[in-house]
C-alpha cells in the first residue's frame, strides 16, 4: 500500500509541474535573430549599427550611475545593457518599430498580441494581472512570468488598451 502511494505521487509530479508557466532566456530572441545575450562585436558584424548608444538613465542599472561603465544599446525598439563588450537584453518597446517581435520556441509576441490571446497561452500568470504606471504616466496592465531556471529575474509583459506594448526582463537590485 505504501509503495502504491509513493508510485502515485511520483507519477503525478509531472502533472503538477506543467502548471508552472516560464520563459527561457536561452530560447528567447528578438525577431528570431538577436539572442538575449550577444557580444557587441557579433552584433556589429550582423546588424551593422545600433540605433543609439546612451548612458543609462537613473534607475536603469544597479549601483551608482557615475561609477558604471555600462551603456544602453537601442536597436529597433529593443534595449540591451552593454557591459565589457557583452550585450544583455533588458526590454523591447513594440510600439517603436512595426516589424519588431519577441520570439520564444514556437511562439512570438508583437504589438498586435492581445491581452486575451496572451491570457490563453499563459492562463496561470494572467490570473495575476497588475495595474502599473508606465514611463509616460499611462495606466498599463502587467503580467509577470518567471524564468525557467532559478535565476533572479522575471519577464514582465506590459499591455496598453489590451495590446502588448512592451516586454521587460526585470533584474532586482540586491
Ranges with pLDDT <50 over ≥5 residues? 3-18
Tell me the total number of β-strands: 14
- Tell me the quaternary state: single chain
What is the radius of gyration? 19 Å
In terms of structural class, how would the helical and strand content be classed?
A: alpha+beta
Give the overall form: globular
Estimated helix fraction: 10-25%
Output the helix-strand order: HEEEEHEEEEEEHHEEEE
Distance between the termini: 48 Å
Mean pLDDT: 85
Describe the largest sheet: 10 strands, mixed
Number of helices: 4
Q: Tell me what portion of residues adopts beta-strand conformation.
A: 35-45%
List the helices and strands and how they pair.
Elements: H1 2-17, E1 22-23, E2 28-30, E3 34-35, E4 37-39, H2 40-47, E5 52-54, E6 71-75, E7 78-83, E8 86-93, E9 102-104, E10 107-109, H3 115-121, H4 123-126, E11 130-133, E12 139-147, E13 154-160, E14 163-170
Parallel strand pairs: 1-12
Antiparallel strand pairs: 2-3, 2-9, 4-8, 5-6, 6-7, 7-8, 8-14, 9-10, 11-12, 12-13, 13-14
